Amino acid sequence: MDKLLLRGNGPLRGELRVSGAKNAALPCLAATLLAREPVVLRNIPHLRDITTTLELLSSVGARILVDEQLGIQVDPCPVHSLVAPYDLVRTMRASILVLGPLLARHGAAEVSLPGGCAIGSRPVNVHLSGLEALGAEISLEGGFVKAKAARLRGARIVMEMVSVTGTENLLMAATLAEGKTIIENAAREPEVVDLARCLVAMGARITGAGTSVIEIDGVDALHGAEHHVLPDRIETGTYLVATAMTGGDVMLRRTSATFLESVILKLREAGSEILEDGDGLRIRMKRRPVGVDIRTAPYPAFPTDMQAQFMAMNCIAEGSAMVTETIFENRFMHVSELQRLGAHISIDGKTAIIRGIPRLRGAPVMATDLRASASLVLAGLVAEGETLIDRIYHLDRGYEVIEEKLGALGADIQRVRTSRSVA
Ligand code: EPU
Predict the structure, then answer these.
(1) How far apart are CA 396 and CA 51, in angstroms?
(2) Pocket of ligand 1 contains residue 328 by CB under 6 Å
(3) 180 CB-contact burial (10 Å; exposed 0-12 / middle 13-18 / buried 19+)
(4) Residue 358 C-alpha to ligand 1 middle, in angstroms?
(5) What angle do CA 35, 37, 38 make, to 5 degrees?
(6) For helices 48-59 and 22-31, what crossing angle results, to 10°?
(7) How much is the pLDDT for 278?
(8) Cα of 253 to ligand 1 centre, how many Å?
(9) Which of 100, 237, 351, 401 has the most CB atoms within 10 Å of its CB?
(10) Confidence at residue 419, expressed as pLDDT on a 0 to 100 scale
(11) Residue 116 has what pLDDT?
(12) What is the mean pLDDT of each run of 10 residues along the chain (423 residues)?
C-alpha cells in the first residue's frame, strides 16, 4: 500500500495548476445518464473517485471515450442495466448520484445503499423522500434502494436539511419530470451551480441554482452537450493553506477567489496576503500564522472540507483557536494523528481547541479520510524530520498528483510503494 514520506523543509514557492472540481465532476458524470446523446465533459480531474464513477457508468452500459484534449465523452445510449452494485458503491458514497438520473430517464433504478463512512453516518433520507415527492415508489431490499416511476411528476420539495448531493440528485431527476419542480432549502454550493450549468447545456430548464430555491421546468428529453467543470475550490484552499503554513509565495493558476470568500477571509486573518491575478490567485505569507477560529456550515459559510487543513495550520499558529464542526458528527479523526506530531488539541463535543506551538515533529501517521489526509500532508510539510503517512489511498480519491504538485513547489515529498519505517 502506498505511503507518503515528507520532510519539513521550508517555504513553498512557485506556480501550480488547480484541477477541475471533484465534487462537480461527479454529479456531471452522473447527469450524462439523463441524455439521449453523448455528453463531453472537460477539466475532469484524474482521481480515483472519477475512475470509480466511470466504472459505474460502464457497468450500467454507458460507453466512455477520452478525446484528444482529455475530455471525457459519455455515451448513455447503450445503457442496459439500472443497477449500481455494492462493490462500487461501497468504495464511493457519491455513487448514490446515479439514482435520480437512472430513475428519471429509465423509470427504475437499484442503487446499493451507501453505508456509513469515517466522517459520519451520512444517511440519504432526503434524497429518497425528495424522489418520493416526485412520485417515485421507493423500497429498501437486500441493502439496495429500489426506485421506480413510469414518469416522475414535478412537485414542491422542502428539503429537511441542506444536502449537497441530495439537492443534486433531485435537481437531475426533476429535469425530466412532468411539470414544474421547486426545491426549497436547496444547497447553494458552487458545485450545484456547475451541475445546473451542465444540465442547462443539455437542454434542461432550471432557474435559481446557487440560491436556496431552485425551480425546474421538466422537459421530455435532454440532448448531448459539452461542459467545462469549474476549478476545485477545496484543492485551491488546501494549497493556499499549505503556502500559508510554510511561509511561502505561490501562484495558483486556473482558479479564482470567487467561491472561496470564507476561506480567504480566514487566511487573511491568519496573516497571509492573497491577490487575484489574471487566471489565478497569488498567496504570500511573511510571518508565522495567527490562530483563527472557524465554524463549518453550508455554503457560503466556511466549508467542512477545509476544516482539517485549518486545524493543521492552527497547530503551528501563534495563539489559540477554536474549530467547530457542525456538518459531520465524526470529522475530527485527524486530531489524534496531529497529536502524534506533537499538536496541542483538546476536543469538547463539536469543538476542538488548539493551542499553537512553534514546531511539529515528524512521526508515522495514518490517513482516515480525504480531508484528514490533506491535513496530515500539510502538517508534514512543516514538521521537523520525517512524517510517513499511511493509507494515502484516501488522498488519491480527491487530490490529483499531490506529491508532484507540492514537489514542484519545493516540498520534500515522495510516494513510497513498499512499507518502511521511519528512523
Ligand atoms: N444528511 C442527512 N440526510 C441526507 C443527506 C445528508 O442527514 O439524506 C446529513 C449528512 O449526514 C451531513 C449533512 O446532512 O451531516 C450534510 O451532508 P451532505 O448531504 O450535504 O453531504 P454529501 O452531499 O454527502 C458533499 C460532498 C462532501 C462534503 C459535503 C458537505 C460530494 C460528492 N461530497 O457530501 O465532500 O463534505 O457535501 O459540503 O459532493 C469531500 O470532498 O471530502 C467530501 C466529503
Answers:
(1) 11
(2) yes
(3) middle
(4) 34
(5) 100
(6) 10
(7) 87
(8) 28
(9) 100
(10) 54
(11) 62
(12) 94 97 98 98 95 96 90 96 92 94 97 77 90 97 94 97 97 98 98 98 98 98 98 98 98 95 98 94 98 98 98 98 95 96 97 97 95 97 97 92 97 84 45
pTM: 0.96
Residue among 149, 148, 184 at smallest CA distance from 167: 184
Are 210 and 164 in contact by the 8 Å Cβ rule? The answer is: no
Q: What is residue 379's predicted lDDT score, i.e. its pLDDT?
A: 98
Closest residue by CA, ligand 1 atom 29: 164
The H-assigned helical ranges of 221-365 are 233-246, 261-269, 307-315, 333-340
Identity of residue 382:
V
Cα 396 to chain centroid, rounded: 12
Regarding the beta carbon of 305 and ligand 1, being less than 6 Å apart is answered: yes
Asked if 149 and 122 touch (Cβ cutoff 8 Å), the reply is no
DSSP helix/strand/coil, 354: strand
Which amino acid is present at 383?
A
* H helix or E strand, kind and range, residue 109: strand 108-112
95, 325, 327: residue to mutate for ligand 1 pocket, most atoms within 8 A of CB: 327
Q: Is 302 in the pocket of ligand 1 (CB under 6 A)?
A: no
Which cell numbers in the block locate residue 191?
Answer: 458545485
Q: Which amino acid is at 406?
A: L
Expressed in angstroms and rounded, the spacing between residue 214 Cα and the centre of ligand 1 is: 19
